[in-house]
Fold these 2 entries.
Entry 1:
Amino acid sequence: MIEIRNVTKAYGDVVALDGASMSVDEGATVGLVGTNGAGKTTLFRLLVGHATPDDGTVRVAGREPTEGPALRERVGFVPEDAAFDPRLTGREVLELHARLRGVPGDDRAERVERVLATVGLADAADRRVEGYSNGMTQRLAVGTALVRRPAVLLLDEPTAALDPRGVEALHRVVDRIRERTSTTIVVSSHVLDEVDRLCERVVVLDDGRVQARGSVADLATDAADAVEVRLRPVDGDARRAAHDAVRDAIADAPSDGAVESRGCTLVVECHRAVAFDVVAAARDAAALDGFEVEEPGLEDAFAAAVDDAAMVDDPAVATTNGGDRA
Ligand SMILES: Nc1ncnc2c1ncn2[C@@H]1O[C@H](COP(=O)(O)OP(=O)(O)OP(=O)(O)O)[C@@H](O)[C@H]1O
């Protein structure tokens, strides 16, 4: 449904996308995760035909960004900060969008009614938008995208401005869309917990490049296996001795590890299976004031994915950087 190959996009000197590639199967719900400036919005602008790539190819539901309006017939884009004429009711907003999108008059009322139910606004349909909460406005925005029955729905940071109740209500809307339609959904977010709640798969974008992809469960499993060991050698000599010993201890570990000095502390990122060996090696080699072992959560898994460009096999979300499809 979505095929992006080796795409670059720059704004003057700023490279927003730098050889990104990914593909998404029909009906999948995929999280697009990235720090500020990672390139998420730029990617969405290409997917909805508001911009064209400088290089590489983008195909969405069989269309390309150069086809602008024809592409937008198939793609619904919900921006982070949608706003509507406050004097209209929710129903009037949806009817207007249905008319603008060419939904035939006979179908319009029923289509709008269904969408109101899907976005949880049936009871508020005849209230003016000026009285809507942020969460209701956001759900109405999703509704405006749904009236045209898009093949692909793009949600750009859909809960960024919402309180916890608004977040949960929006999440239920996404659940209903998944249950009732075969729409392919891409949700951009800073928050891995949200991606975990909504999506079975995730693409991690950083510096305009796809750094990791796979199931949220795989990323979480990676996180569960990773620990951070903090060693406090008694002095500089001890720190150097411990550093060398620890480096040797993690050299044969089942996954990559790293040793870093932070002030007087040695910080070791490693697989949990070698945490004991790391501490033992450091204590054999040097005097320590103490040590701690910490297990990172999902957010750290995301950060680790960005740092390490870790790749996880997943057939439904195939991504590469500047190379062939995985
Ligand atoms: N119109 C523009 N002109 C110049 N630079 C831009 C423009 N739009 C985006 N950029 C830059 O391109 C890079 C990617 O921006 P983009 O908005 O795609 O990232 P993002 O992941 O959506 O970030 P955020 O989460 O902050 O919205 C950033 O360095 C940004 O400053």
Entry 2:
Amino acid sequence: MHLIAPSLLAADFRRLDQAISLVNKSEADWFHLDVMDGMFVPNISFGQFIIQQVAKDAKKYLDVHLMIEQPERYIESFAEAGADGITVHAEATKHLHRVIQQIKAAGCKAGVALNPHTPVSVLENVIEDIDLVLIMTVNPGFGGQKFIYQSLQKIRQAYDMIVVRNSPAIIEVDGGIGLQNARKVLEAGARVLVAGSAVFKAEDPAGVIRDLKGLESNPLISV
Ligand SMILES: O=C(CO)[C@H](O)[C@H](O)COP(=O)(O)O
Ligand SMILES: [Fe+2]
């Protein structure tokens, strides 16, 4: 069954408690939390403090997407803030293998994200060690952008690598995902759908989550 991870980035932060409660009560599986440092990406969002506050009320898995340079500086503090899974960008560190071990040592699931221009082949030497591959389907930094269609090919490549190498990793897709393209990304091999604007800018966010969850899962992707 595929999983839905609403991104709080698109929520109204004046009413963060309402957004958390909406996700708690909905059919969503995870909270997706986008951390941006103004260096790796042009935008600055929030950090450990906000995640700590979210963790107090969130009743679901906290999926932390770090869009920060040298994420190795902050892994333990995000784990302490309440992250269940931490995903770092392959482009943001010189020592990807070491950071993956660091995330696991901190007690979290380890994910690696790839920008749209980064080939799947950079995962060649870590694919067996990771729990999640995050294929960015927009250039990271902002919510509400247009889905990049060439990403479908990358999802298939990542899926093939996972199968051939017998990796435990699942594929998450992030950026411009909504009911208009979710079926295609699931068919390509995605297991987790991140959706920010499609959920929180909708009139009925819980209804959108229900519809995304109700889509047919790819039978090849079990568990
Ligand atoms: O990582 C991200 C941006 O860098 C966000 O998770 C993503 O953009 C979600 O927002 P939307 O669904 O509106 O595209
Ligand atoms: Fe994200």
